[in-house]
Amino acid sequence: MRFHIVLRYVALALLLNALFLGISAAISYFNGDDAFMPLLYSGLVTALFGIFPLIFVPPASNITNKEGLLIVVLSWLLSCLVGTLPYILWGGVFDLTNAWFESVSGFTTTGSTILTDIEALPMGLLFWRSSTHWIGGVGIIIFVLSVLPFIGIAEMVLFRSEISSMVRENFHHRARRAIQIIAGVYVGLTLLETIALVISGMNLFDALIHSFATVATGGFSNKNASVAFYHSPTIETIIIVFMILSGLHFGLLFGVIMGNIRDFWRSSVVRYYLLAMLAGVALSAWNIHGSVTASWTEAFRQAAFNVISVGTSTGFATADTTLWPAFSQLLLIFFALQCACAGSTSGGIKTDRIVLLGKSFLRHLKELMHPNAVIPVRVDRMAVGNDVVGKGVLYVAVYLGIVFIATLLLTLLGVDVLSAFSGAVATMGNVGPGLGTVGSTGNFAHIPTAGKWIYSLTMLLGRLEIYAFFIFFTPAQWKKTISY
Fold this sequence. Notes:
Radius of gyration: 22 Å
Strand order of the largest sheet: 1-2
Order of helices and strands: HHHHHHHHHHHHHHHHHEEHHHH
Helix content: 55-70%
Number of strands: 2
Distance between the termini: 19 Å
Number of helices: 21
């Protein structure tokens, strides 16, 4: 293990953070708010730690799988760590625990917050808070690789270490091309949404904040009432469209841009994703009509925005979903567990695994009826190996197990069952709001200190898709080849 090589690549991630800290400091300076010095000091410290390894460690074009995984996990952890600096230096409600929680929530695009008054934050700090979403949205290492020149086999190893295993099985491009596609679609969606929101009446700053949060499926708003602050059906519609797009596989989106619409509509995952969202919106609207709102128009407006927001793991809100009937709340829990497609910025189990789970269940039923038959699991007419099916089922089981353990620990700390469970689901899926006291109009400020650290852990586990994080903290595994 060549730790000096690892430090060189981690340093690049730190420099990326330093760049956005510098931009945030500039915004703070021109706005004249009191976050300028905290952001400037944080940016300088982060830049120094990023520059030294680049000066003293020579570049390497060849890294091992173990080194690649170590680079990815360290990049995430250190980014979250430096992300706490401006919060702590600024002060206010940000002690170490709260600063860590807010930083992890930002970088993992979870969107949960400890803030009771978001609008009290200075403009520069609000921009940094949203920048953590955008940096973490497509993955810190993917972001770094997208601006670096070709670096040989190291690029392929880092790409494979950063992205989900489900994405690797569905991205039919070489590493460099895949990185360019992901970054291009990501930046393109952000620019398009920013322009659309400005045209709809938002000022440029608010439009950037909400575009960062939408395309990264993060959910940090600079308004206490989230998107409900604007009372605008036009703004809500624009954000709905971009939430849906940001929950799709970026490779398929790129194919549509290039004119290959046929593969997009042939994808069973895409069809399931869109139909599930449509069904969820329709059922929720039917359920809240009469009990929450008397108007069918308002029922569909609330259901469409909030179901899609949870189902894409974005976490914006336009209604207090804790007041919805139990049926609609359970639908939200389901979508918070599932979320959107692999290859997007969404969290959760992913629709790809849900489709795989459903097809493997149907295959098992057929095998019970026809014991001698050989029945493969097929996704989009392609046979899926039993090893892929097994990994998918195992991932879902482990995922749900972690949610249960986190819920158990939170109830032990005195958190009520609904808040503990929905909070675990929301943080593990990088969704943001849960139900109960951590609902769409609530926050995580009242959660005990130990509970905030537990939720921070579930955010990281969800964002790094469990295995990378566990391998990183299992010393015995470093003697073996990383393969998952």
